[in-house]
Design brief:
The protein is an alpha/beta fold. The protein has 15 helices and 13 strands.
Length: 402
């Protein structure tokens, strides 16, 4: 494996044609996409628009639908995840003459025929909020440090994430590029669609959350804050918790019932990508109360759809929302309730937040987001030009392409 210093490129090398790009696309699955899935899709869309030659590697459950021009889809078989990562993938990279590989995770193949760029969205897998797992955390930290040391470059979604990566993984700051996550073109103000909302059991007006139900999302405090709203406001609005998972829902349902707001808290389940813009657009307010966020993509999507945003003051959220939303102390339920009450009862404030949010979201252009990822990948891929003899070494280690 080449050391990361061997992938540093000169300005002249950066001017070469687009490389043959490969991505780990296992997060591209049918239906509602994860944040990582959205990140991958926007990078591939950008590469397709610019005429790149790409290959996306998935597993049996993944797919790229609809297909993208210039993007080949390849399913790699493997008996378990580590084999896929460290055996099947490197062989495929050699077979397909890949010049640079993008991983959407903190990990990647340790020995490859091309440079690897990691995308570390967050470090929640180490020292997860509220959990003490000293052996697990020490092991995962050591592995993350190894992957980071082998990477040619690292993408972080925010300055907050970059600081965490540099501090906790011992990575040089120059190796980490802060590039925000791209917005999909579908996220824009959408006219109300009562039929669509009814399909998810939602009626307006409503307060919206979109995401998973893991503890760091702080949803128990959101439900308690909703229960603290003045009776008239609480009676007119519902709290819609979209997304989530089967494991997290029962405790939240029980909490809502205990607080007397069980009938006002709606769980529509996972919402398809084609319906999310309408759900965001129809919200009286969007809330992201997280204790930890590496970026906070749902808040950006909500702003792009014209929803007033209320976000916690933790992690990357103040950096993302800036002056375009109301920010509250993530551990103070009365403060969240007060912020919600203002947005739901003060029409002028809500209108101002909608305007500010749209303006803020407009800054996250393809050129500033996925376009910068492509520029970084092009720079890293250009370093192959001075490693011509290495191709023979790769064929010997990984097998001749078939």
């Amino acid at each position: 494996m080449r050391s990361s210093s061997e992938w540093i490129v000169s300005p002249a090398e950066a001017a070469v044609a687009a490389p043959r790009l490969a991505v780990d696309a296992r997060e591209l699955r049918p239906g509602a996409r994860t944040g990582i899935g959205r990140y991958l899709l926007e990078v591939l869309r950008a590469a397709s628009r610019e005429g790149w030659s790409c290959v996306a590697y998935g597993d049996a459950g993944a797919c790229l639908d609809p297909p993208l021009r210039g993007v080949d889809w390849s399913v790699l078989d493997a008996p378990w995840t580590q084999w896929w990562d460290q055996v099947s993938l490197p062989r495929a990279l050699a077979r397909d003459s890949v010049t640079v590989f993008l991983s959407p995770y903190y990990k990647g193949p340790l020995s490859t025929p091309c440079p690897v760029v990691l995308t570390i969205h967050d470090l929640f897998f180490i020292g997860y909020p509220g959990r003490r797992r000293p052996v697990y955390d020490a092991t995962m930290t050591a592995m993350a440090r190894l992957y980071a040391s082998r990477a040619a470059a690292i993408v972080a979604d925010s300055e907050y994430s970059k600081r965490s990566i540099v501090t906790r993984l011992g990575v040089s700051a120059w190796k980490v590029s802060v590039i925000p996550v791209a917005l999909g073109p579908e996220f824009k103000p959408t006219p109300p669609d009562e039929t669509l909302l009814a399909r998810y059991g939602v009626t307006r007006p409503y307060v919206l959350y979109v995401g998973n139900f893991k503890p760091h999302k702080n949803l128990a405090r959101l439900i308690r804050a909703f229960a603290l709203l003045p009776g008239a406001l609480r009676g007119r609005h519902s709290l819609v918790l979209a997304g989530g998972d089967a494991d997290g829902r029962p405790a939240l349902t029980a909490l809502a019932a205990t607080l007397g707001v069980g009938a006002r808290v709606i769980f529509p389940g996972r919402v398809g990508d084609e319906d999310l813009a309408a759900l965001y657009s129809g919200a009286a307010a969007f809330v992201l109360p997280s204790l930890e966020e590496g970026f906070g993509l749902p808040a950006l999507e909500a702003m792009a759809c014209g929803a007033p945003v209320v976000a916690s003051n933790r992690a990357a959220l103040p950096e993302l929302v800036a002056e375009a939303g109301l920010v509250f102390d993530a551990e103070r339920e009365p403060e969240l309730a007060a912020a919600l009450a203002r947005v739901l009862s003060e029409g002028a404030l809500a209108a101002d937040l909608r305007h500010r949010g749209l303006a803020r979201a407009a800054l996250y252009t393809p050129a500033r987001t996925s376009g910068r990822v492509l520029a970084l990948l092009r720079d890293v891929g250009a370093a192959r030009a001075r490693l011509g003899a290495w191709g023979a070494d790769a064929r010997q280690r990984f097998g001749e392409p078939r």
